[in-house]
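ESCALATION

Customer reports they have been waiting on this structure for their group meeting. Please prioritize. Original submission:
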Amino acid sequence: MPVRTAGGSRADLVADTALTLLADRGMRGLTHRAVDETAGLPPGSTSNVARTRQALLELTVRRLADREARVLTLEEMPDPRGGLDSLVNGLALATHRALTSGRELTLARYELALEATRRPELRTYFDAKGGRFRDQLTALVTALGSTDPARHVLSLVAWADGLMFSCVAGSYSTEVPSLDEVRAGLRELLAGMSGPGEPGGSENPS
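Update from on-call: job pushed to the front of the queue and completed.
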């Protein structure tokens, strides 16, 4: 069943249900009728919220971005002033949750990303939503002392996406790394991006 947020709107319920269906049944299983039935809504309710399939997909992408942005609480977010430790701990926690409690969202994101390769109108929308995360990450690695933030962000995102795909849908799907293992991998990657004057850039993994 979809995640029901307290006080959530009908649009949120529709989008949450769509995410659940994507994770459980794939893109072919996402229809307006399936959303109505799975969410326990009267027939036609989803069409009233998102009349076309494109509108339903855009609504779902927007909800995915909103929910992924809340994976970490404000207290858990990396502090740009906290140096390497803060960034490693925050990103490791977010990545590990994507592999465990957020596995459904991760699967749904892969379904939407693949669909976007076939729908240029969805590709533009999908990339715009993902840009918010990249901008935040760019600011964090810049504060860490990166001399080439764009390249380092690409390396970091590729590492995290590769780990998540391998452990959620790939050949390591039965082997979920521990939080400490994710933290160690991120520290190894991020330590090489730190400027020479960055505190913590040369620290040993804890």
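Sent to customer with the following note: The chain has nine helices and no strands.
Escalation resolved.
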